[in-house]
Specification:
The protein has 422 residues and is of the alpha/beta class. It has 14 helices and 19 strands. The protein has three domains: 2-108, 3-Layer(aba) Sandwich (Rossmann fold); 115-360, pyruvate-formate lyase- activating enzyme; 365-418, Nucleic acid-binding proteins (OB fold (Dihydrolipoamide Acetyltransferase, E2P)), CATH 2.40.50. It binds S-adenosyl-L-homocysteine. S-adenosyl-L-homocysteine binds next to strand 13.
């Protein structure tokens, strides 16, 4: 979501005749887009702002946007008096105000919902893989999570707006779209005629767009994987056979304290249904280790479920207490060294499963999408339907979509040969 937000901000500045530069010292405006989901990222923000302040031109405008901006609010100006603007994740469309009035300070951390999507210009050229936000915010209130506070209550964009943005992206260069939302499968929009649309409706309609080759969505909440959505994996071949569906923990006790209202059985049942709909589907997950009160036995259950589901690609994090969340106040916070140890063990397990899955791909052929080339230009970087990176020799006749036969694999990437070429 932050990558997408940054694209839109860049498009807005482009439309005002500005250009991007790699050098802070050259820039007339510097915007640090920030994430506050975990403590580590938040802690880096003010030291990074200090570095920017020291490197920038004296009259260059600089500020922060995103969730740390919302969290810090006016205190950001106390901590960093040189800042020109502080804009929350739903108010960065107010940025032109500071360009028009550079001597003022701009603070806006409102949760205004959808305004930003309409007020910002579209990108002139869409990236090959284009993100399309369909909803923002989250109503689930997991006890560890700051998202409901920083991004607000759940709100879904109008169906027609999403269709318009998707068509625009495909017309201007997108081959793949990824629907985005903090609770993407909770998408629910009722139009003026009382017709309600869900994510499955969006997938069905966008799949009809010619020259759109691949569709995916992130991130999903397990109990919102409804049957109509699961059915899409059976009926829409453009929907990739890959799904991020975070389980967070394999311990029923921890899940309860996280306020994640599913049992292991009901979670596994969803996976069974997905596999019945699309036998080649693979799943990825997010995990939190060291949640307050997590025992060795709880952690063992997380390792067990990881091995049972065989997630092919996952994100794992040490629990970090966040402001405004219930878990931050829970007793039995886990010491840092135990969190670190558990994370290393889980990462080893997940990496091993990923390597084994990648090895099973050797000799198989997948239709892949080219996302760019390596630094030398000698190799193209393709993505398989499972989001694995695959390195392929660059040729003059290479194309964006190609059938790639996998020739070698390690944990992090694959190598392959373009078999659509003679
Ligand atoms: N559904 C949201 C989740 C965002 S956070 C979205 O995709 O936008 C992504 C992941 O960060 C979560 O799935 C969770 O595993 C992790 N996370 C969230 N809060 C955390 C915390 N306080 N400590 C550690 N990890 C956390």
């Amino acid at each position: 979501m932050n990558v997408y937000d940054s694209w839109r901000i860049a498009a807005m500045l482009d439309a005002r005749g500005m250009e991007q530069t790699d050098s802070v010292a050259d820039a007339d405006i510097i915007i640090l887009n920030t994430c506050s989901v975990r403590e580590k990222a938040t802690n880096k923000v003010f030291s990074e702002l200090g570095r920017i302040r020291d490197a920038k031109k004296p009259n260059a405008l600089f500020g922060i946007v995103g969730c740390v901006a919302r969290e810090a609010g006016a205190t950001a100006f106390h901590r960093m008096p040189d800042l020109n603007f502080v804009l929350g994740p739903q108010s960065y469309h107010k940025l032109p105000q500071i360009l028009e009035n550079p001597d003022a300070r701009l603070l806006n951390i409102d949760l205004s919902g959808l305004e930003k999507f309409d007020e910002m210009p579209q990108m002139v050229t869409a990236p090959v893989v284009s993100y399309i936000p369909i909803q923002e915010g989250c109503d689930h209130c997991c006890t560890y999570c700051i998202v409901p506070y920083t991004r607000g209550r759940e709100i879904s964009r109008p169906f027609a707006d999403v269709m318009r943005d998707t068509l625009h992206a495909v017309k201007t260069g997108a081959f793949e779209i990824c629907f985005l939302g903090q609770n993407v499968n909770g998408y629910k929009y009722t139009d003026g005629n009382g017709k309600t649309y869900h994510l499955s409706d969006l997938i069905r309609e966008t799949a009809k767009i010619p020259h759109l080759y691949r569709i995916r969505f992130t991130s999903s909440y397990p109990t919102e994987m409804t049957d109509d959505l699961i059915e899409m994996f059976k009926t829409e071949p453009k929907l990739l056979p890959f799904l991020n569906m975070p389980i967070q923990s394999g311990s029923p006790d921890v899940l309860k304290r996280m306020n994640r209202p599913y049992s292991l059985d009901s979670y596994l049942e969803i996976i069974d249904k997905l596999r019945a709909a699309r036998p080649d589907i693979q799943i990825s997950s997010d995990f939190i280790v060291g949640f307050p009160g997590e025992t060795d036995a709880d952690f063992e259950q997380t390792l067990k479920i990881a091995k049972q589901v065989r997630y092919i690609n996952s994100y794992s994090f040490k629990y970090s207490p966040r402001p405004h969340t219930a878990a931050a106040l829970m007793p039995d916070q886990i010491p840092e060294n135990i969190k670190r140890e558990r994370l290393a063990i889980l990462d080893n397990t997940l990496n091993e499963i990923q390597r084994e899955f990648n090895e099973t791909c050797v000799d198989k052929t997948f239709t892949c999408l080219c996302e760019g080339s390596d630094k030398t230009g000698r190799h193209l970087l393709y993505r398989t339907p499972y989001m694995q990176q695959c390195i392929v020799q660059n040729r003059d006749d290479s194309s964006a979509i190609a059938d790639i036969k996998i020739t070698a694999a390690n944990r992090a990437s694959l190598r392959g040969k373009d078999v659509t070429l003679k």
